[in-house]
Design goal:
CATH superfamily: Flavodoxin domain
Order of helices and strands: HHEHEHEEHEHEEHHHH
CATH topology: Rossmann fold
Shape: globular
CATH architecture: 3-Layer(aba) Sandwich
Radius of gyration: 23 Å
Strand content: 5-15%
Number of strands: 7
CATH class: Alpha Beta
Length: 255
């Protein structure tokens, strides 16, 4: 045996493995095994899936709004109840108190929703400030309850030129940060000014077909997860914290 081989630690066999009961760092009172019934056979809701749509432009002919309006029509045909938030009048994040009427309207809609659609124009290679402001006003926690956690999200963008994916990539990062279940499919509409007629209706094209695909997927994921969301996002680390401690940690004012 070479000197090199002598330095290699032997692989532990199953008989040498530490017992699963020997977990000194584990807080036993907060640890729970996965409940198959909660995941596989929950009580199913019968109301229509509730979807909130946010767009990222204040222009009179806002293509992100028009794309969302088209998405809302598709969602309603798929059996959903939809609501759209108008960002006009929403102050910049931290530019007003949480009690501002537009802030409260947005937060109430987020709490109401079971899924969301975020659609932003791409500006300077990124989502718009209007889009980011809306997301910044959505808190990670309201009194220890996370208003976005476990809800579904579809991301879309409209482009003034060739097709790009910078805005939807950023929206995906934010969706993960907000603990949303962001669906795999997405939509990016190139040269959006060519895709809508004078009435603001989207014409038939592969871009329209993709929005239909995305909305179908969003509805399926929402129906699949909405009655399981509490169990899916139930975390050991958060069970160790009181609601007050959790709220204090995720809503830090001094940054």
């Amino acid at each position: 045996m070479t000197a090199c081989n002598q330095l290699i630690c032997p692989r532990k066999t199953n008989t040498q493995m530490t017992s699963t009961n020997d977990l000194p760092a584990l807080h036993e009172d907060s640890f729970r095994e996965t409940d198959p019934d909660a995941l596989l056979t929950p009580a199913l809701s019968t109301h229509k899936p509730r979807i909130l749509l946010l767009h990222g432009s204040l222009r009179e002919r806002s293509y992100s709004r028009l794309a969302n309006e088209e998405a809302a029509r598709i969602l309603e045909k798929l059996g959903c109840e939809t609501r759209m938030f108008d960002p006009d009048g929403l102050p910049l994040a931290d530019g007003a108190e949480d009690s501002h009427p537009k802030v409260q309207e947005l937060r109430d809609l987020v709490v109401w929703s079971e899924g969301m659609v975020w659609c932003s124009p791409e500006r300077h290679g990124a989502m718009s400030g209007v889009m980011k402001t809306q997301i910044d006003w959505i808190p990670l926690s309201l009194g220890g309850v996370r208003p976005t956690q476990g809800k579904t999200l579809a991301v879309m963008q409209v482009c003034g030129g060739s097709q790009s994916f910078n805005a939807v990539n950023q929206l995906r990062i934010l969706g993960r940060w907000m603990r949303l279940i962001t669906i795999p499919n997405q939509s990016s509409v190139a040269k959006a000014f060519l895709e809508f007629d004078e009435r603001g209706r989207m014409t038939h094209s592969p871009y329209y077909d993709r929005i239909v695909d995305v909305m179908e997927e969003l509805v399926k994921f929402t129906l699949l997860t909405r009655d399981r969301a509490d169990h899916l996002v139930d975390r050991y680390s958060e069970r160790k914290e009181s609601p007050a401690k959790l709220s204090e940690r995720v809503n830090q004012k001094k940054i």
